[in-house]
Amino acid sequence: MTHANAVTPPPPAPAGPPDRAPSAAAPGRPAPGTPPLPLPLPGYGPGRLLRALPPATGAPDTGPVVHVLDGGVGPAAAAAATGTALTAAALHGTPYDLVVSAGIGGGFAGVAPPLAVVVADAITAADLGAQTPEGFLPVTELGFGTSTHRPPPALARAAAEATGAVRGTVLTVSTVTGSAERAAELAGRHPGAAAEAMEGFGVAEAAAAHRVPVLEIRTVSNPVGPRDRAAWRIREALEGLRDAFRRLVPVLTAAVAPAAPPESPAGPSRQGGTAPHPKAAPIAAKEATPVAAQTPGAPGAPAPPAPLEPSGTPHDAQPPGAGTTADPGRAGAPGAGTGTATGTVAAPEAGQPLRIAYSPCPNDTFVFHAWAHGRVAGAPPLDVTFADIDLTNGMAERGEFDVLKVSYAVLPWVLDEYALLPCGGALGRGCGPLVLTRDPGDGNGDGSGGDGNGDGGRARAAGLAGKTVAVPSERSTAYLLFRLWAADLVPGGVGEVVVLPFHEIMPAVRDGKVDAGLVIHEARFTYQRYGLHRLADLGEYWEGTTGLPIPLGAIIARRSLGTARLRELAEAARASVRAAWDDPVASRPYVLEHAQEMDPAVADQHIGLYVNEFTADLGEDGYAAVRGLLTRAAAEGLVPPLGPDALDFP
Known about the structure:
This protein is of the alpha/beta class. Helix content is 31%, strand content 19%. Strands 14, 15, 16, 17, 18 and 24 form a six-stranded mixed β-sheet that branches. A five-stranded mixed barrel has the order 4-10-9-5-11. Strand 14, helix 6 (362-372) and strand 15 (382-386) form a beta-alpha-beta unit. The longest helix has 23 residues, at 234-256. It is globular, with a radius of gyration of 26 Å.
């Protein structure tokens, strides 16, 4: 890992019993060639030591310092070891900025052959959930926590390019696969899986708890499948891992190295002494667990830039005061999505950064680019967290941020604490959710589908009666529209409704795991690549029955900020939208970086569809659409009723 604060050598250990040992911290500056330095961790005996490696560059004051920790076997041991190292460093005031889970593992046939290097673009707990007669249910479908953590996309790409690695999902299992049947099951449930190992998810959970980004790298010692010890190539895989890390050093160094700090108004700093070199974070895996890296900084010197965000990208050109992002995965903890906003986080004082959460989708990054990068005159600085909207909904219900992008469907649960801003959100026409199926007979036969209305549309909709439908969230405009459409056009209603992550819905429909899927956003432009057909366009249904635009995503802000600041925020959001329209090229790198490899043409379509006149101002039609949707949903018992003034802006 790396940190952006000053790194100082740890104080000498005081005399006393072992359970009073001081927390581990940065080891100081070992000279080139110095052997690894053992650093005891609280609660761990011999063998569970951080080893501080000299800077890879050979110069004592440059390059990241790497701490290597043998974290044990399995996700629980790896999580405990990583969490201990992270906590010890944080308590000493020298927190890490990056954790690398590293080791050997099994490779999936046709993706990662023996001795291949694999860099994870997703770290997934493959057996965390419940086994049912219908098959395996991941923990997310049970309503608890998360099953996937995503490394920073830019860092994962750079690591893969530097090492010649395969990029894909690395599955974490508690029991190593030993049969062809189990290998096929895992590959079927996780089409993007490249490798299987036993520690990555535990390391990622610990890193997420500390809001530190994570990377996982594996070399393949054997195929995933029937257990054949004679075919294992452990020694060669370990040698390959060592070679991969040699090539990875420049990438990790670049990832954690701070830019030159700006000069103070009084001129260059005259702070005496030499700044310590960066400290690395723990590396975690079977063979070597947590690796950390820290960035330089001397006491009294200007603060270095923010570290990598857990969501996957570094802050670029953040205005002074903008902090690092919080971990979006934390929003999926038990209890998310229920209850009312608690207001446990105090509103920031004037001049302090506002904590804002919005999605990495192109429309949101396009809208907020200028504001987030200090290009809106007079606007308060932002501390940005990226999280998908199903997570921001839960954050709003728990009162965790000052400003959030949420679904309009969640407003009835949060408007006591938050006010709806009249701008910055997503409404529109021709941009509604789609209901997709595999059967071309369910649509128009050409993949274009229909609106589910009229005689032909009613007949097609009726075919969904009793069927299983996958949806991305039950607290979303898409879900409310789907329920209203089904109540009107599906006799007796649909059958089971299952909640799946956005990216799993179209593959589930294609593979026959569900009968139909409810999709949103860029899926409007890509579903035909999956061989799917449109059964209904719920936007056309809504517009055809109401004449109003579709309310999708709202911007809300904490009421406790006060009337004056709420109005200031609304003006800042409008100015940011106008700046994006005036100079769309300026936001393009930010948009594409956070779009996570989305085709640029699709990103442009996404922006064109969801950023429009309603983004600059809701207007009469916008407010009518929001109240109309929530009033109809309340009549169906889907949401609590709104008060008469609930949508009023101060």
